[in-house]
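$ ./design --mode recover --in tokens.txt
reading tokens...
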């Protein structure tokens, strides 16, 4: 037990923080832009995948991978958030025209 490795713990903390940040980000994105901004999440996800494949450091690469797949998952959540707004669970933006 000469060496204690904290990489796994650090990756877990990073995952927790990234997922925690994406939850309100999706809510705000849907409120201000609707589902039109899904391409931004797609581009961020692709950039995260590329970065994860190019970075040699395991923790940084894993963080980019977590970011990438959180971005991809956010596309799905964005459309589900639209449904939650339609059901009245979240407020609709009165300044934005409703999407079809």
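writing sequence...
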């Amino acid at each position: 037990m000469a060496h204690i490795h904290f990489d796994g713990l650090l990756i877990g903390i990073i995952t927790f923080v990234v997922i925690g940040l994406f939850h309100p980000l999706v809510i705000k994105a849907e409120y201000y832009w609707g589902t039109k901004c899904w391409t931004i999440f797609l581009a961020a996800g692709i950039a995260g995948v590329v970065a994860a494949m190019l970075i040699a450091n395991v923790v940084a690469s894993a963080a980019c991978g977590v970011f990438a797949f959180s971005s991809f998952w956010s596309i799905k959540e964005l459309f589900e958030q639209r449904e939650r707004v339609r059901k009245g669970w979240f407020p609709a933006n009165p300044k934005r025209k409703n999407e079809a």
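exit 0
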